[in-house]
Amino acid sequence: MSTLKPFLIRTLQLMLVLWAVVTILFLMFRLMPGNPLAAYIDPTFTAEQQEALIRQFGLDKPLWQQYFTYLGNLLQGELGYSFRYRTPVAERIMLLLPNTLILTFSSLIVAYTFGILAGAWLAWKRNSRFEAAALPAVLATRAMPEFWLGMVLLAIFSFSLGWFPAGGTRSAGTSYDSLWQLYTSANFLSHLFLPMMTLAIYSQGLPLLLMRSNMLDVMKEDFVTMAKIKGLSPSAVVIRHGARNALLPVMTSFAIAVGYQLQGNVVVESVFSWPGLGRELVNAVAASDYPLAQGAFLMIAIVVITMNLIADLLYTFLDPRISHA
Amino acid sequence: MPDTSVKATSSGIARIFEAIKLPVGDPFALAGLIIYALFIFTAIAAPLIAPYDPTEILYTEDYDLASDLLPGEEGHILGTTSLGRDIFSQIVWGARSALLVGFTAAFMVAFIGSVVGLLAGYFGGRVDAFLMRLADVAFGIPFLPFVIVISAFSEPSIWNTVIAMALVLWRDTGRVIRSQVLSLRSRGYVEAARVVGSSDLKIILRHITPNILPLSFLYGSIAIGWAILTEASISFLGFGDPDAISWGFMLQDAFASQALARQAYHWFIPPGLAIILVVSAGFFISRGYENLLFPKLGR
């Protein structure tokens, strides 16, 4: 099976990268100024709690031993206790992960749907006055600070017009029987709308520009010329022969975009008080809740690395013109 | 790819300018360069342009705190903040922070990326394998969270933020320059230099580096934008240098002072527009470079 080999090599490389990032994370939180115990132990923990954590993470041992204990604990999903919540970090992170993923994927689906259509449209309208105005506008959306866009939307649609709530995931005092009921409730969706649009407006530029330039490339290829010679209508040529082939690289960029989006989430979640991983990371860092900050960072890194791998594999396997070497 | 080699006859500064190839022919890039010129001028002449010290707490003629003034009131062009500071002066001084962050970060990114790319591409083998795995790791680090953690845990200063950015952002430049060096290495004039016994260092500095400089500048001009946006995010989240007036700091100040709920658009719209203007100018210039370096993409 020659197609399996590149898959294995890439996966191995991914494990190597993950190990390196985990090591960097260990050093980052261990080499900071202050008590080396501070990475896991808050002075207000009870004596027994402190003892237990010192034993679990080997905090009285030399650094290299701590490192192996840390790796062993990670493999078991053991991330320590949050200083502020007094609960296991892993539990807290799993609680917040769905909120971040919902925000990320909903905004990217909106961004890619719009970006692909608008990109194809712009390629179709090539050299028009419309294109001349649209391109700088698209570039400008890529130059916006995401949190600023969020602030502007918040000021207009929440504070001025009152159409949408200002933050959180649901109104105070509401409760739902299941997560599914919560996520499909009008209450939740109205809270989701503004942060989602913020991220979508920022993200649509990438698929749009990619789609446009791919379309322009594809329309020059022989099979498109052939289709024109056969006498197919312009719209049939563009949609059936152009767009279908231009779409592939755009779709593979989706995986990379998920990774980038998670980083943008950090600021946008903070603007909208959206209880996700990014906002938790910021709050944990600000409050010196080191175990939680480490855990949130690690979770984001895992998603970024996995998405890089998926993009890589999609690119290799879906496009037959790229060799598997 | 067009041959970007430099004529050996020109000398000194002229040669550098020729090597950078400022893309003045492209209308996008020209617009970007003009914006940059204004931006740099504002940053340098900030004390002359700004009517007030950006951190000074101002009072009205009746000795009241000059807080939350609207644009035009008491002669404040863009009004004042809740603490009674002049918004227009903060915008002007913010250009200085942005210039400092943008250009130092871009320089470091372009420099580290070029050196890594040169070494990996020229020496190949284990050096290449090691440096490219290092780039893989840099791609695996979540950029903004990394900069947040470094900025928060070190002394709050613009430089720590800049260094944290450079530690990650060199990755794109490094990869692209490496592949460019790979193709240059087998060119005739490089082979010829090797045959006549030029040292590796001399070949790299004299024959290869001049040809990758435009690419370094392309990635540098993209990094300026990234650096300014990132610094703004860091300041907005409250991990920035508390002594530096930056556009990100202004936005954080406005956000924390409930400017949104009070509809104080004159406070938080201008810093955002300033960032967009400068960052998109960087994008426009890099587009001009791309058209120049890769004419196939130019449309």
Question: CATH superfamily assignment of chain B?
Answer: MetI-like
The biggest beta sheet of chain A, please?
A: none
pLDDT below 50 for ≥5 consecutive residues: which ranges of chain B?
A: 1-10
Rg of chain B, alpha carbons: 23 Å
Level-2 CATH architecture of the largest domain in chain A: Orthogonal Bundle
In terms of quaternary structure, the protein is: heterodimer
Which stretches of chain A of 5+ consecutive residues score pLDDT under 50? none
Look up the CATH topology of chain B. Answer: MetI-like fold
What is the CATH architecture descriptor of chain B?
Orthogonal Bundle
Compact overview of the structure:
Chain A is mostly helical and 325 residues long. Chain A contains 13 helices and no strands. In chain A, 73% of the residues lie in helices and 0% in strands.
How does this structure look, described?
The complex is a heterodimer of chains A (325) and B (299). Chain A folds into two domains: 72 residues, no CATH class; 232 residues, MetI-like (MetI-like fold). Helices cover 73% and strands 0% of the residues of chain A. In chain A, helix 6 packs antiparallel against helix 8. The longest helix of chain A is centred in the C-terminal third of the chain and has 38 residues. Chain A starts with a helix and ends in a 7-residue tail after the last helix. Chain B is mainly alpha-helical and 299 residues long. Chain B has one domain: MetI-like (MetI-like fold, Orthogonal Bundle). Chain B has eleven helices and no strands. In chain B, helix 6 packs across helix 7. Chain B is elongated, with a radius of gyration of 23 Å. The two termini of chain B are 16 Å apart.
